[in-house]
Specification:
The chain is mainly beta. The protein has two domains: 48 residues, no CATH class; 212 residues, no CATH class. It is 8% helix and 37% strand. It is built from three helices and 21 strands. The strands form five sheets. Strands 7, 8, 9, 10, 12, 13, 16, 17, 18, 19, 20 and 21 form a twelve-stranded mixed β-sheet that branches. It has a three-stranded antiparallel β-sheet with strand order 3-4-5. Strands 1-2 form a two-stranded antiparallel sheet. The longest helix has 13 residues. The N and C termini lie far apart (47 Å).
């Protein structure tokens, strides 16, 4: 696998892996990845042997949770919506064959900057990797059936970050989309194709942006899931425009679905301080 390398999503060229990453999580859970540019590939999971509690609260160590850095703040915001995935680190996550596509209704957005999905265990679902497609479709073709001959294999996202910009790169919008608590259940639910009477499954996530309202500091968007002859809207979200005068976003980039349930800290686990996070909630 190391010698084979992977395809760079931006150049289309084959690139070798350059970094081996060891990620550690509470309970002695360890995951090993290999990185090649923006692509990160999971290699294996295992559990370290517990050797004792002595030195656990060494006053000379500094943990992420005590940090005031922006990265720590972003992670604390993330777990405010998704919790700490102790169980997932233990048992892993199921992978599915699906792709993600993007579409916008008007000409405000001309250029793809970034779309990144995050799974329950925090794994990245990177744009245009050899495992997942993030194609851009014309608005009138956004619900076209997926080509099932393309086989992708990846975990499902619980959170999607979207960043799109105008072609001149002078204006852009960001969205932090928190998917419904039961998203995996909805995606994995079978349906009967009304045209063929066959049992089918969803195999695509669609991100769509409505026409721009110049009086609003954001664009409204949709998350749909689709399969053969079937489409289901999951939620709506806001993609917030960057204000070039104040040099900041005027409203929160975070969107959560209606009936969203915030996670509770598991009994017996160490609680973390929850940050105050502003967000927009679908009605």
């Amino acid at each position: 696998m190391f010698n084979k390398g992977t395809k760079d999503p931006y150049t289309g060229q084959n690139e070798g892996y350059s970094t081996v990453v060891a990620g550690t999580a509470p309970g002695g859970n360890i995951t090993i990845w290999m990185k090649s540019g923006p692509i990160i590939t999971e290699i294996l999971k295992f559990k370290a042997k517990k050797i004792g509690q002595e030195g656990r609260y060494d006053p000379h160590t500094v943990t992420l949770w005590l940090s005031t850095g922006q990265e720590a703040k972003d992670i604390l915001k993330y777990i405010n919506f998704h919790g700490v995935p102790y169980k997932v680190w233990e048992i892993g996550e199921k992978e599915y064959n699906y792709d993600i596509v993007f579409s916008n209704e008007d000409e405000f957005i001309k250029y793809d900057r970034r779309i990144t999905g995050y799974s329950k265990d925090g794994s990245l679902i990177s744009s245009n990797s050899d495992k997942t497609s993030f194609a851009t479709l014309e608005w009138d073709k956004k619900f076209d059936a997926r080509d099932n001959s393309k086989k992708y294999k990846n975990k499902l996202p619980v959170h999607i970050f979207v960043q799109r910009s105008t072609k001149d790169n002078k204006q852009w919008c960001d969205a932090e989309i928190v998917l419904p608590n039961n998203f995996e259940t909805l995606f994995n639910k079978a349906y009967i194709d009304t045209k063929t009477s066959k049992r089918e499954y969803y195999n695509r996530i669609i991100i769509g942006l409505d026409k721009e309202d110049k009086d609003l500091p954001y664009l409204m968007g949709h998350i749909w899931i689709s399969g053969q002859n079937r489409l289901k809207e999951i939620m709506r979200f806001r993609a917030v425009k960057f204000d070039t005068i104040s040099r900041k976003f005027l409203v929160s980039k975070y969107s959560i679905p209606k009936d969203f349930i915030f996670p509770k800290w598991e009994k017996g686990k160490e609680p973390l301080n929850k940050p105050d996070v502003d967000y927009w909630q679908e009605q």
